[in-house]
Amino acid sequence: MATKINNGIKYVPFDNRKSLQSLATKNVGRTISPNTTVGKIMHSRLGTARDHCLVAIKNVGLSTYLLHGYALTYPPKNMVYCITPKVGCTFWKRIFRFLNKDYVGEPKNPFDITRMFSHFGPINHMEKIDLTPGNITILARNFTFTFVRDPYARLWSAYVDKFLLPDFWVAFGKNIVAQNRPNATQKSLKCGHDVSFREFLQHILNRIKLGRRVSSHYLPIHQLCSPCHIHFDAIGKLETFKQDVDYILRRLGLSFLMENYTFQTHEEDEIVTLIDYNFWLEKRLPEECFDPVTIAERLWKALQLKGYLDETETFPEDSMKHLNKPETIRQELKDRVFKSLYARRSPDRHWMTRRKWLVEGYKPVSNFVLKELLEVFQYDFEMFGYQKKPADIFEGRYL
């Protein structure tokens, strides 16, 4: 069947408009009784999604859209999670692996499962469901939830984790360089190590608008886990992650999973995981593309951008250069990071610093690219209640 492209979304024609209009109308009715503060918030979020789905179905033909995402299940609790990368998915993959006993060793809690195993380990017991129309119908019988995030923050986070750091250098970075930089150096073409945020945005937005394949890490969430197609019982947000996680797990009788899990625990886990994972990537990159000291310096910068390290903290390059082995450099980096971290720990300061660097990241981005971003992520902004033109990002711009 021929496909159609509309607003960067690929459609496969089939007549499903009436059923999706019915789904969108019922969506709020399925939510849990809003007898708590968080329950009321969830009720409101589902209502916002429902209202915008009804408009989108009429104006765009969203009824013909096939989702690109997938879901994880835990049958004993009729629990289904629609995965959205860059919105706490490592956290939830650990939860589902732990519940389904899909791990190695004897972890005492979900957070003993490593990031590498949570993403790349074999799936022997846990069910992973592609979101075909038939499977979506089945999901309606379960408690189904997903998590969303402000598109500006999600794209910036994807860039920092995947392109400032080496995860996507070879897989995607070198192609971005080849297609967008006429005078690229040979190292850039081979390693893809120096993609700018502007180049990243231009490349992925163009591909999405043309209906070409891109990583799920920066595909719009409505193309992965559309509330117009799936009966969600809860929509969590990264901005209120802990309270939304607590709410969902409490509703399912699984609150024990979060015992002793605090902001400090999350912070330390993310830092250790980030450092270990990026040094683990050494075996996946060409030798000339992985210099341990350079990777350590980029991790230091990434932790500053994430609000874990103060911008005044200088990377200890001289001491790192005297270390010979990647393992020694990795451990020295952890020691230095945690020494700085413990001296300046503050959740409020953490989030303020993150926001400051995000705004700085968008300053070199042209109005043309921002306009394209608004078009491609229009339904994420509208369905999930995010501000399209935040004042700090759009200050001095006329769009």
UniProtKB/TrEMBL annotation:
It is found in: Golgi apparatus membrane. It is an enzyme of class 2 (transferase). Its EC number is 2.8.2.-. Keywords: Carbohydrate metabolism, Glycoprotein, Golgi apparatus, Membrane, Signal-anchor, Transferase, Transmembrane, Transmembrane helix. It is a single-pass type II membrane protein. The keyword Cytoplasm does not apply. The keyword Glycoprotein applies. Belongs to the sulfotransferase 2 family. This is Carbohydrate sulfotransferase.
